[in-house]
């Protein structure tokens, strides 16, 4: 009997189009245009991280994305009063709360949901009451995921960066151990009623592998796709990514359309 599992979606992060723009100044390349091209090429949603230091995406980018997109906008942000207020103004489809440090190059590690206390719980509640789907970007840790469910998050996005780094470094044993953590975390979160997303550091091969986890419903990928777009174009890069995800999902007999 064929096993039926839910389809898997692709969210495309356009932050690093803005990184290139900001390196020189001016308006080009335009991350909003990149988002529109990504959607035309098959992206199911767009992610943009408005950092506190505005190093890539800017407030005006978020407002334009909210105005023009016909697919869900995932507003990635630190769990600060400023960002919550902006999210309540823009009302994106979803907010993904992430840890953020000024000195980091990219998001390092998962959100400390346990350490977030009542303040984080109140922010999750406030966003949820506004009709915004709240996701928490977490390490594949049992206690963090359980706490995410306790405070009312709708989604957890599993941080796949450590697994990808181990693979890149050729540390097969560590990579296998980390992937086991990811697989168990996906099952645990799903059993707690959370929707499971995954992202960070994924390429074609790792996206194919993670897409074969039945509990994972969405992958959010940015840096790799923007890098590949330099050589192959954004549409072609997204097409190849969708094909990789489809190969992974096909191992489970899953439907391919979102």
From TrEMBL:
The keyword Metal-binding does not apply. It is found in: Cytoplasm. SUPFAM superfamilies: Pyridoxine 5'-phosphate synthase. It catalyses: 3-amino-2-oxopropyl phosphate + 1-deoxy-D-xylulose 5-phosphate = pyridoxine 5'-phosphate + phosphate + 2 H2O + H(+). The keyword Transferase applies. Signal peptide: none annotated. Pathway: Cofactor biosynthesis; pyridoxine 5'-phosphate biosynthesis; pyridoxine 5'-phosphate from D-erythrose 4-phosphate: step 5/5. GO terms for cellular component: cytosol. Pfam families: PdxJ (PF03740). Gene3D superfamilies: Aldolase class I (3.20.20.70). Keywords: Cytoplasm, Pyridoxine biosynthesis, Transferase. GO terms for biological process: pyridoxine biosynthetic process. 3-amino-2-oxopropyl phosphate binds at residues 13, 24, 201, 222-223. GO terms for molecular function: pyridoxine 5'-phosphate synthase activity. Its EC number is 2.6.99.2. Coiled coil: none annotated. 1-deoxy-D-xylulose 5-phosphate binds at residues 15-16, 51, 56, 106. Belongs to the PNP synthase family. Homooctamer; tetramer of dimers. Catalyzes the complicated ring closure reaction between the two acyclic compounds 1-deoxy-D-xylulose-5-phosphate (DXP) and 3-amino-2-oxopropyl phosphate (1-amino-acetone-3-phosphate or AAP) to form pyridoxine 5'-phosphate (PNP) and inorganic phosphate. This is Pyridoxine 5'-phosphate synthase. It comes from Starkeya nomas.
């Amino acid at each position: 009997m064929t096993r039926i599992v839910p389809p898997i979606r692709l969210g495309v992060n356009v932050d690093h189009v803005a990184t290139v723009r900001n390196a020189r100044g001016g308006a080009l390349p335009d991350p909003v245009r990149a988002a529109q091209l990504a959607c035309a090429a098959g992206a199911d949603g767009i992610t943009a991280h408005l950092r506190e230091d505005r190093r890539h995406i800017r407030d005006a980018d978020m407002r334009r994305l909210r105005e023009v997109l016909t697919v869900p906008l995932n507003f990635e942000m630190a769990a600060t009063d400023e960002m919550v207020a902006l999210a309540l103004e823009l009302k994106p489809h979803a907010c993904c709360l992430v840890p953020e440090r000024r000195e980091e190059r990219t998001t390092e590690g998962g959100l400390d949901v346990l350490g977030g206390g009542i303040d984080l719980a109140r922010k999750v509640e406030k966003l949820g009451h506004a009709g915004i789907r709240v996701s928490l970007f977490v390490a594949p840790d049992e206690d963090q995921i359980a706490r995410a469910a306790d405070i009312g998050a709708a989604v957890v996005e599993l941080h796949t960066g450590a697994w990808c780094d181990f693979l890149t470094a050729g540390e097969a044993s560590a990579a296998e151990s980390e992937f086991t953590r990811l697989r168990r975390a996906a099952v645990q979160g799903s059993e707690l009623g959370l929707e499971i997303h995954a992202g960070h550091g994924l390429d074609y091969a790792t996206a194919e592998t993670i897409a074969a986890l039945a509990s994972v419903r969405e992958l959010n990928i940015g840096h790799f796709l923007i890098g590949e777009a330099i050589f192959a174009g954004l549409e072609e890069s997204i097409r190849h990514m969708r094909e990789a995800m489809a190969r992974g999902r096909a191992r489970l007999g899953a439907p391919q359309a979102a």
